[in-house]
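Human: Respectfully, please carefully check these tokens:
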Amino acid sequence: MSKKNIAVLKGGRSLERSVSLKSGGRVEKALRELGYRVEAIDVDARLVRRLKELKPDAAFIAMHGSGGEDGTVQELLDILGIPYTGSDVLPSVRCMDKVLTKHIFVADGIPTPPFYAFNRDAFQQLGAADTLPYIGEELGFPIVVKPSSQGSALGIRFAHNVDELPAALISAFSFDDKVLLEKYVKGRELAVSIIGKEPRTLPIVEAIPKSEFFDFESRYTMGKADYVVPAEIPGEVAATAAEISLKVFSVLQCSGFGRVDIIMDEDNGLHVLEINTIPGLTETSLMPMAAEADGIGFNGLVEEVLAAALESA
């Protein structure tokens, strides 16, 4: 009996389109090698029509950013009754919004750097710019300024003093209508990948960027960062990072797979930055590295992610 027919959703029109095409291409190749019948879809306005025609047994979502990670395509797949990989609509909505995620972290006692957040109306109509000196005093410099709903470190700027905050905010607002101002924590970049119908963590990856921070170029350009897996950190710190990451995954009601990004400070304290519900699956992505260190090849990783979706159907 032939294996199931899987639609691989990739591309889309988000700013992370190029990354998504790479992730989707690798997933497509892996599924074919595993014997599945595969229909690759570069997502556009014909998506629903194509899915209705194809009637796939499941969809493997390899889309990053808006449209793919924010609950939009998940909602459509729910309407069509097509099982899909990764988290459902609600956790996708929550996790895509960094500001909402940070508030949930605080409410549930998950360690995260102190922050403030604004939407565009606060600056245009309520004079929020006058709070910037106060924010500088409270958070200290540098301050990390991020668009609320972008991935892959797109639009992130560092403000090293109060005079640099307006330009950093303008940059972030060019990507999103809501921005996050976060206390900078100097430390080591750790990524904790989570997988499985019964969620478990994979070996922790440390990313060591060769630039100021782990930006888009560092993430997706060969040679722009070094990686250590398993991360060379004390065993008790690794255990705590895994425990915190599973709590994040549970609190936000995620499923299937995900990746929690953490900063370990100079005193081995852990600070959760965010969770990604559709981690990159490119050649330089962190989750495949973690799986490899756990003895799971890329094809095995893809099959386990898909299996969780099929079992939940």
Notes: The chain has three domains: 5-85, 94-111+186-312, 115-183. The chain has a mean pLDDT of 92.
